[in-house]
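Dear colleagues,

For the upcoming journal club I promised to circulate an example of a predicted protein-ligand complex. I picked one with alpha-D-glucopyranose because it came up in last month's discussion. The inputs are reproduced below in full, followed by the predicted structure.
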Amino acid sequence: MFRNLVIWAMVLMTFCFAVPFACGQAKIVDAEGHQWWQHAVFYEIYPRSFADSNNDGIGDLKGITSKMDYLKDLGVDAIWMTPCYPSPQIDFGYDVSDYENIDPMYGTLKDFDRLEADGQKRGIQIIMDFVMNHSSDQHQWFIDSRSSRTSTHRNWYVWHDGKGPGQPPNNWQSTFGHSAWTLDPKTNQYYYHYFYPEQPDLNWRNPAVEKAMFDVTRWWYDRGVAGFRLDAVDTLFEDPDLRDNPILPGKNKFGDPNMEDKYNVKLPEVHEVLRDLRKVADQHNAVLIGETWTKDVSELKQYYGEHSNELQMPMDFLFTTVNKVSAPEFRRQIAAVDSAGGWPVYVLSNHDIVRSYNRYGDGQHNDAIAKLMAGLYLSLRGTPIMYYGEEIGMENNDPKRKEDVKDPIGKIGWPQEKGRDGERTPMQWTSDANAGFTQGTPWLPVPPSYKTHNVANEQQDPNSILQFYRHLLALRHQNRALLDGDYVPLNENDPDVLSYLRRYKDQSVLVVLNMSSQARTIDLDLASKGINSKKAQTLLTTMGNEGKERTLPQMSLEPFSVYIGELSK
Ligand code: GLC
Ligand code: CA
């Protein structure tokens, strides 16, 4: 009986592998049961800043569609678009006023369908951003909710009486500064918002809210989206007793007392919702990606679910906390997540974090370091999520004056907190004015480095960051060891050179990353891994004058260089 089942499972997997679309969105992509998202390269697009088709200075869906060939050629398999739903744009789309539409500034649902279809044609999946913790205060639900204490949607948000005159219900603070409670004079109660006051928290303890939000996901699945990135999942639930959070010493960048978000973040109820959302996702062969800020891998692990029944792709942001090019630090982080049991999800930066080019760059070797970082996270076992512009070495362009700041937290927290405008500037397509993003006035200015760091120039230059990404992604897509092979660390005490194997059956790919500004010669300890190859066939390297082969186990390496080669058997 069991044998028959196994045979049937194998037949089915082989069939799905050969005829993927008969099995939904290419759910299983190989005979070993890997799913499409495990072999995919994800790419985050900030729609305001990617490509502007109508020259109003703001990117749009038609703009994204016009760049589909670029993305395909780069090696992208799935795009995650940050929110493009109707929104007053207080938090640039993370304040949604209608979950089932497109903001006119970005286009129409028809434009979305076109984008989706053009993606499908090229095998590029579309992932939407699901802003589930809060809506905009302009959403019909909230407009009704605040209209009276007895309105239909009153209990869709978190309302409470103050503690006393002029006093909010408790000491909880918004992560964007100051009290998380705003008094609404109309009904003389406070509503809760973990983010801006214009982003009231939905009440996930109300089954009607849950149903409405689950229906939103079905609505988009039916339109063809392949999954969601779940925004701010940690913040869905609050302590029903509204207990005060413990105060910690010191003040934060907004001048508020430091606080442990004990009673309003990471409540266990979150996991129930994730399990239910996963059931719906599974019915649509969809993937759930989580915005999962965690303090360590054991916390991250919880988001996969005890029975792998929550998020397939909780993002590992721990990588982004290593803000220096450090072999020992990365080695430690990789080992932790690689052995955690789930499929790792690597991220270098996003629309909320300073760009990796600035975080890792030393001011002298930035381009080499950009390739080094790509060589690192794109050669690991797991799914990478790129951030637009990273592949051309885009840098942050932080506002210089408070009056130029667009992101409200930059105004509230200036000058300690300059906001997130710097990492959200327009994609640099050419060396023309405004980097070819728009013929109008871009909503944010591009940094001067666009003259050299842009798609058009880098397409012409065989040594550019862009070409390195293209080659690396092409290699990754076709090399079995890079896709699925185990991560086997080498020379674990080396302070400067991070080296490892990706091992799949009897195939081994060697990755060597010199994380120092000095040339280095290393002696690879392959013998202890039972490998006695004396040669590697070079697959990709940043080092000039490379032959097709390298002799092992000694290797000389240029500063900040990448070497990837296949070990001969
Ligand atoms: C997430 C988003 C961020 C947004 C916040 C509120 O952290 O990535 O950009 O401001 O949620 O929705
Ligand atoms: Ca536009």
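Two points we might discuss: The chain has 15 helices and 21 strands. Residues 52-54, 56, 58, 60 surround calcium ion (ligand 2) (CB under 6 Å).

See you all on Thursday,
B. R.
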